[in-house]
UniProtKB/TrEMBL annotation:
CDD domains per UniProt: 7tmA_Glyco_hormone_R (cd15136)
Name of the protein: Lutropin-choriogonadotropic hormone receptor isoform X1
Keywords linked to the UniProt accession: Cell membrane, G-protein coupled receptor, Leucine-rich repeat, Membrane, Receptor, Repeat, Signal, Transducer, Transmembrane, Transmembrane helix
Membrane topology: Multi-pass membrane protein
Residue stretches of biased makeup (Polar residues): 293-303, 318-327
Taxonomic path: Eukaryota, Metazoa, Ecdysozoa, Arthropoda, Hexapoda
One of the GO biological process terms: hormone-mediated signaling pathway
Keyword Magnesium in record: no
């Protein structure tokens, strides 16, 4: 226990030493005043008497430091007026200190730090420098640090101050009301870590004329106002996924750095003409007016250049609706993120702390007619930069891809819908193959619906997707599309494998009718397939990988081991399924080929073998084209060597990934004799297209046999040969449905 106390004692001494060093560095000279320390104190009220009781003269106190005061509840602010030399007030770890009365005039105060305490509202600091009227233009607070309290509200005019830095980090602020900083002059303002901060009023920062740096990282804000931020130079909104829309670059006249959360927000700064066409058009109009003015002045060389510049600046339209906004003379500001505050303002700079200048045109320009120059695009250092997963492009990227996806959608949706309608309408003759075909058609139809959703979003957001990116990628639509994509892919792979196994089993054991897969067994198998597909599609919704990582709503981003295992399992499932299908079809072909060579009808058997071989090759080939490219590039990406980005990966998405969804309904159903019979049966029930039904019946009438034509001599076969022939016919009949 003693060692623990010694450890904390050393820690507080280090903190104290750092604070004193900071105070000295702020003043730029060695402090000659008195530093009063209350370490591990049990005082309940901070008064002038409690300070004097320690043997200090009040008029000599410059630094008042309180650390670890668990019982401190009240600060007698009126007693602080007796400490006329007070430059810094620091209170740390005072959990019972909930409110502080408005601070009186303290002309020398430069630093106020109340951290990790119990404050529930921002203390009123607006009168700190009221008495020093003569030097008021030079008085300012170097730092106001109210970090890690329980602040919920910002009272009106509480921060009507002149300050270099104000930190309200890690509090419980829920809203920043209108005019919260009116008539204040704050250079750096931070709300970092206020996770409950949801709303910023449109006029929240209005009236703060010198704001240069703003930090809203790790908050819950959904929009960013622009009033009062025209002169902003550094903007931080990291780890804030709730921010939907970033204002136009033309709303930030001096912005140089932006540290954001989403890649597509940086696209807005790269392509302002697409982000806000109206503002960009006004910008182009301004350029044209500037050029016209300079050309007119060039034609009149006798005019005084200073008059030309004056006339020019007075008549130009501005992009800002607030033409009388003021700015400050530039000086160096410290970067964010440091626990130390440094006084960055020299005496001569204080004179220009709020020096008004001419109204800004809203664009970077340098004009002297005869030497006209204009920065047509102001560069902003923005992170995170668009990358391979989130490029600054539309959902489909290319025009030919945008047109092609509609043909793919039509083929997948129409083909699988036709299969489902015919198979479900003939429910009285439900067999295992038909049952499996229904599941296959439904899974492929889901793939078509997924592509349809992407095509609609691409059509709606054409040319400016980054303006819609948040609502799409982080909305319900993208989650539904991603779920449909993974669910349909897994269910289709599973069903294709079961269909192949069922046909291999039926043909291999053709003469053993009792060894067929029953409808009940097939139903149990497909229930397992549905559960597996739903599980794999639902994992990104539960936090394993993410559908929102890219505009095509696929779980392609891998940030952890769990994501890599999940994506690897998807690829392995496709690989095992394809190998199984290839092995089964090779066995089927060998089985049918052997029978055709052994028994009679070699020419017919050879033709049947070729037909079956071609169909099997087509089935295997479509599966390979569908799964192999996606699996290959996916595995290389998981291995850390991505060979294709999302822009080119969309070609795989449109032409290879949905290949099965387009081909399966034709290869497995529409082009088979059984489907044509079912379709004509359905047409016959409706009483329409009788001519087509009659034509099919005539075409399907078998040739005359000994039973239909008695004059024809019967073809006699030995009993053994007859049984073998019957078996062959059954096998060929099963093969026709491949």
């Amino acid at each position: 226990m003693g060692e623990l106390k010694m450890f904390f004692s050393r820690k507080f001494k280090v903190l104290l030493a750092c604070l004193l060093f900071f105070v000295k560095s702020c003043t730029g000279q060695e402090s000659k005043g008195t530093t009063v320390e209350f370490l591990h104190t049990n005082i309940t009220r901070l008064t002038a008497r409690s300070v004097a009781a320690r043997g200090y003269r009040l008029d000599e106190v410059e630094h008042l430091i309180i650390i670890n005061a668990p019982k401190l509840e009240h600060i007698a602010v009126e007693d602080l007026t007796q400490m006329l030399a007070l430059r810094s007030l620091s209170i740390t770890q005072a959990p019972l200190l909930h409110r502080i009365a408005p601070l009186p005039p303290l002309p020398e105060l430069r630093t106020l730090m109340i951290t990790t305490s119990g404050l529930v509202e921002v203390p009123n600091l607006s009168h700190v420098h009221d008495n020093d009227v003569a030097n008021r233009s030079q008085q300012y607070l170097q730092a106001v640090d109210l970090e890690a309290n329980h602040i919920r509200r910002i009272p009106s005019h509480a921060l009507r101050i002149r300050a270099d830095q104000v930190s309200l980090n890690y509090n419980l602020i829920e809203e920043v009301p209108a005019h919260a900083f009116k008539n204040s002059q704050i250079s750096k303002l931070s709300f970092k870590g206020n996770t409950k901060l949801r709303r910023l009023d449109d006029l929240a920062f209005a009236g703060n004329l010198v704001l240069r740096q703003l930090d809203l990282s790790n908050t819950g804000v959904t929009s960013l106002p622009t009033k009062g931020l025209e002169n902003l130079e550094t903007l931080k909104i990291e780890k804030t996924p709730s921010l939907k829309y970033i204002p136009s670059i033309y709303d930030f006249r001096n912005l140089r750095e932006a540290f954001l959360t989403h890649h597509f927000h940086c696209c807005a700064f790269q392509f302002p003409e697409r982000h806000n066409p109206a503002r960009h058009k006004l910008y182009e109009t301004q350029i044209a007016v500037m050029k016209q003015k300079c050309n007119q002045n060039d034609k009149n060389p006798t005019q005084d250049p200073r008059k030309r510049r004056s006339t020019y600046s007075e008549k130009l339209p501005t992009l800002s609706s607030d033409a009388n906004d003021t700015s400050t003379a530039s000086y160096e500001y410290q970067s964010w993120g440091s626990e130390e505050y440094s006084g960055s303002l020299e005496d001569e700079e204080l004179e220009n702390f709020h020096e008004p200048v001419n109204g800004s045109l809203g664009v970077a320009y340098s004009v002297e007619c005869g030497n006209f120059s204009l920065s047509r695009r102001r560069e902003v250092l923005c992170t995170p930069q668009p990358d391979a997963l989130n490029p600054c492009e539309d959902v489909m990227g290319w025009s030919w891809l945008r047109a092609s996806v509609w043909f793919v959608v039509a083929a997948a949706v129409v083909g699988n819908t036709a299969v489902l309608l015919v198979l479900l309408a003939n429910h009285t003759e439900l067999t295992v193959p038909r049952f499996l075909m229904c599941h296959l058609a439904f899974s492929d139809l889901c793939t078509g619906l997924y592509l349809f959703m992407l095509a609609v979003v691409d059509l709606r957001s054409y040319g400016e997707f980054f303006n819609y990116a948040y609502d799409w990628q982080y909305g319900v639509g993208c989650k539904i599309a991603g779920f449909l994509s993974v669910f349909s892919g897994q269910l289709s792979v599973f069903t294709l494998t079961i269909v192949t196994l069922e046909r291999w089993f039926a043909i291999t054991y053709a003469i053993y009718l009792e060894r067929r897969i029953s409808l009940g067994a097939a139903a149990k198998i497909m229930i397992g397939g549905w559960m597996f597909s739903i599980l794999m599609a639902g994992m990104p919704l539960a936090g394993v990988s993410d559908y929102s990582s890219t505009s095509i709503c696929l779980p392609v981003e891998s940030e952890g081991v769990g994501d890599a295992v999940y994506q690897g399992s998807l690829f392995m499932t496709n690989a095992v399924a394809w190998v199984t299908i290839v092995v089964c079809y090779v066995q089927i072909y060998r089985s049918l080929g052997g029978g055709g060579e052994k028994y009679g009808g070699r020419a017919a058997a050879a033709a049947a073998e070729r037909r079956i071989a071609n169909k099997m090759a087509l089935l295997i080939g479509t599966d390979l084209l569908c799964w192999a490219p996606v699996a290959f590039f996916g595995v290389t990406a998981l291995a850390g060597v991505p060979l294709v980005d999302v822009s080119h990966g969309k070609v795989l998405l449109v032409f290879f990934y949905p290949l099965n969804a387009c081909a399966n309904p034709f290869l497995y159903a529409i082009l088979t004799k059984q489907y044509r019979r079912d379709l004509l049966t359905l047409l016959a029930r409706t009483g329409r297209c009788d001519w087509l039904v009659q034509r099919y019946k005539l075409a399907a009438t078998p040739p005359p046999t000994a039973h239909t034509n008695p004059s024809a001599p019967p073809l006699l076969l030995p009993l053994v040969e007859y049984n073998r022939s019957t078996s062959m016919n059954k096998e060929n009949g099963e093969a026709d449905n491949l």
